[in-house]
Amino acid sequence: MVQLQVLQKIGILTVSMLLGYVYYFWISREDRSVKLQNGSLMASMLINFVIYLWVGKIVMHGLLFIQDPLAVLAYPSDARAFYFATGLSFIHVIGLIIRKGWPAMRVFTAFFPAFFAASFVFECIQILVLHQGIGWEYLALLMLLLLVHMVCSERCFSSNLVFGCCCAGAQGNLY
How confident is the model at residue 175 (pLDDT cuts 50, 70, 90)? Predict the structure, then answer.
Protein backbone atom coordinates (compact mmCIF):
# COMPACT_ATOMS: atom_id res chain seq x y z
CA MET A 1 0.00 0.00 0.00
CA VAL A 2 2.85 2.38 0.84
CA GLN A 3 4.50 1.69 -2.51
CA LEU A 4 1.27 2.57 -4.30
CA GLN A 5 1.08 5.90 -2.46
CA VAL A 6 4.68 6.71 -3.35
CA LEU A 7 4.12 5.82 -7.00
CA GLN A 8 0.94 7.91 -6.99
CA LYS A 9 2.81 10.96 -5.66
CA ILE A 10 5.60 10.49 -8.20
CA GLY A 11 3.03 10.14 -11.00
CA ILE A 12 1.17 13.29 -9.93
CA LEU A 13 4.42 15.23 -9.71
CA THR A 14 5.57 14.00 -13.12
CA VAL A 15 2.24 14.82 -14.80
CA SER A 16 2.23 18.25 -13.16
CA MET A 17 5.72 19.04 -14.39
CA LEU A 18 4.95 17.85 -17.90
CA LEU A 19 1.80 19.96 -18.02
CA GLY A 20 3.78 22.94 -16.71
CA TYR A 21 6.24 22.55 -19.58
CA VAL A 22 3.35 22.18 -22.06
CA TYR A 23 1.88 25.41 -20.68
CA TYR A 24 5.22 27.19 -21.17
CA PHE A 25 5.50 25.78 -24.68
CA TRP A 26 1.96 26.93 -25.47
CA ILE A 27 2.11 30.42 -23.91
CA SER A 28 5.63 31.46 -24.98
CA ARG A 29 6.07 33.56 -28.09
CA GLU A 30 9.66 32.51 -28.68
CA ASP A 31 10.89 30.35 -31.55
CA ARG A 32 10.39 26.63 -31.28
CA SER A 33 14.13 25.96 -31.07
CA VAL A 34 14.49 28.43 -28.16
CA LYS A 35 11.55 26.79 -26.38
CA LEU A 36 13.13 23.36 -26.75
CA GLN A 37 16.49 24.66 -25.56
CA ASN A 38 14.88 26.28 -22.51
CA GLY A 39 12.99 23.05 -21.79
CA SER A 40 16.25 21.15 -21.94
CA LEU A 41 17.88 23.61 -19.55
CA MET A 42 14.94 23.36 -17.13
CA ALA A 43 15.12 19.55 -17.18
CA SER A 44 18.87 19.72 -16.60
CA MET A 45 18.38 22.05 -13.62
CA LEU A 46 15.78 19.69 -12.16
CA ILE A 47 17.99 16.62 -12.57
CA ASN A 48 20.91 18.49 -11.00
CA PHE A 49 18.68 19.48 -8.07
CA VAL A 50 17.70 15.85 -7.45
CA ILE A 51 21.35 14.80 -7.54
CA TYR A 52 22.27 17.64 -5.17
CA LEU A 53 19.44 16.53 -2.89
CA TRP A 54 20.98 13.07 -2.68
CA VAL A 55 24.40 14.62 -2.04
CA GLY A 56 22.81 16.73 0.69
CA LYS A 57 21.34 13.63 2.33
CA ILE A 58 24.75 11.95 2.23
CA VAL A 59 26.50 15.00 3.70
CA MET A 60 23.90 15.52 6.44
CA HIS A 61 24.03 11.84 7.46
CA GLY A 62 27.76 11.29 6.92
CA LEU A 63 28.37 8.76 9.72
CA LEU A 64 25.34 6.69 8.77
CA PHE A 65 26.49 6.75 5.15
CA ILE A 66 29.83 5.25 6.17
CA GLN A 67 28.09 2.47 8.12
CA ASP A 68 25.23 1.72 5.71
CA PRO A 69 25.29 3.65 2.42
CA LEU A 70 21.90 2.49 1.15
CA ALA A 71 20.14 3.40 4.37
CA VAL A 72 20.85 7.10 3.83
CA LEU A 73 19.20 7.14 0.43
CA ALA A 74 16.21 5.21 1.78
CA TYR A 75 15.39 7.97 4.29
CA PRO A 76 13.18 10.80 3.06
CA SER A 77 14.86 14.15 2.55
CA ASP A 78 14.57 16.77 5.23
CA ALA A 79 14.80 20.56 5.16
CA ARG A 80 18.57 20.53 5.66
CA ALA A 81 19.14 18.40 2.56
CA PHE A 82 16.71 20.58 0.61
CA TYR A 83 18.53 23.78 1.59
CA PHE A 84 21.87 22.15 0.82
CA ALA A 85 20.60 21.18 -2.65
CA THR A 86 19.19 24.65 -3.20
CA GLY A 87 22.53 26.21 -2.29
CA LEU A 88 24.47 23.89 -4.59
CA SER A 89 22.00 24.54 -7.40
CA PHE A 90 22.36 28.29 -6.92
CA ILE A 91 26.16 28.01 -6.97
CA HIS A 92 25.96 25.82 -10.08
CA VAL A 93 23.72 28.30 -11.93
CA ILE A 94 25.92 31.27 -10.94
CA GLY A 95 28.95 29.32 -12.16
CA LEU A 96 27.27 28.63 -15.50
CA ILE A 97 26.32 32.28 -15.87
CA ILE A 98 29.83 33.51 -15.16
CA ARG A 99 31.86 30.79 -16.85
CA LYS A 100 29.79 30.00 -19.94
CA GLY A 101 27.79 33.19 -20.36
CA TRP A 102 24.55 31.31 -19.73
CA PRO A 103 21.40 33.29 -20.68
CA ALA A 104 20.10 33.41 -17.10
CA MET A 105 17.19 35.80 -17.58
CA ARG A 106 15.88 33.84 -20.55
CA VAL A 107 15.92 30.59 -18.59
CA PHE A 108 14.33 32.15 -15.49
CA THR A 109 11.56 33.75 -17.55
CA ALA A 110 10.93 30.31 -19.06
CA PHE A 111 11.12 28.56 -15.69
CA PHE A 112 8.57 30.87 -14.03
CA PRO A 113 5.45 29.99 -16.07
CA ALA A 114 6.38 26.31 -16.19
CA PHE A 115 6.89 26.13 -12.41
CA PHE A 116 3.73 28.01 -11.47
CA ALA A 117 1.63 26.05 -13.97
CA ALA A 118 3.04 22.79 -12.58
CA SER A 119 2.30 23.99 -9.05
CA PHE A 120 -1.25 24.87 -10.07
CA VAL A 121 -1.86 21.44 -11.64
CA PHE A 122 -0.30 19.69 -8.64
CA GLU A 123 -2.48 21.58 -6.15
CA CYS A 124 -5.59 21.00 -8.29
CA ILE A 125 -4.98 17.27 -8.26
CA GLN A 126 -4.18 17.30 -4.54
CA ILE A 127 -7.35 19.23 -3.63
CA LEU A 128 -9.89 17.95 -6.14
CA VAL A 129 -8.89 14.31 -6.52
CA LEU A 130 -7.06 13.33 -3.35
CA HIS A 131 -8.78 15.80 -0.98
CA GLN A 132 -5.41 16.92 0.38
CA GLY A 133 -3.18 19.90 -0.30
CA ILE A 134 -2.49 23.35 1.06
CA GLY A 135 -5.85 24.94 0.38
CA TRP A 136 -8.06 26.87 -1.96
CA GLU A 137 -6.34 30.17 -1.15
CA TYR A 138 -3.01 28.96 -2.51
CA LEU A 139 -4.73 27.53 -5.58
CA ALA A 140 -6.44 30.88 -6.19
CA LEU A 141 -3.10 32.68 -5.79
CA LEU A 142 -1.46 30.41 -8.35
CA MET A 143 -4.34 30.95 -10.76
CA LEU A 144 -4.07 34.71 -10.28
CA LEU A 145 -0.31 34.63 -10.91
CA LEU A 146 -0.80 32.61 -14.09
CA LEU A 147 -3.49 35.01 -15.30
CA VAL A 148 -1.27 38.02 -14.55
CA HIS A 149 1.53 36.37 -16.47
CA MET A 150 -0.72 35.63 -19.44
CA VAL A 151 -2.12 39.16 -19.58
CA CYS A 152 1.02 41.13 -18.78
CA SER A 153 3.68 39.05 -20.53
CA GLU A 154 3.74 41.37 -23.55
CA ARG A 155 3.22 44.65 -21.70
CA CYS A 156 5.86 44.35 -18.98
CA PHE A 157 9.56 43.76 -19.07
CA SER A 158 9.92 40.04 -18.44
CA SER A 159 12.39 40.27 -15.54
CA ASN A 160 10.12 42.71 -13.64
CA LEU A 161 7.12 40.44 -14.23
CA VAL A 162 8.99 37.34 -13.07
CA PHE A 163 10.33 39.11 -9.98
CA GLY A 164 6.92 40.47 -9.00
CA CYS A 165 5.11 37.18 -9.49
CA CYS A 166 7.79 35.20 -7.66
CA CYS A 167 7.58 37.60 -4.71
CA ALA A 168 3.79 37.20 -4.66
CA GLY A 169 4.13 33.42 -4.87
CA ALA A 170 6.66 33.35 -2.06
CA GLN A 171 4.37 35.51 0.06
CA GLY A 172 1.55 33.04 -0.60
CA ASN A 173 3.73 30.13 0.51
CA LEU A 174 4.38 31.82 3.86
CA TYR A 175 0.72 31.78 4.89
Answer: very low
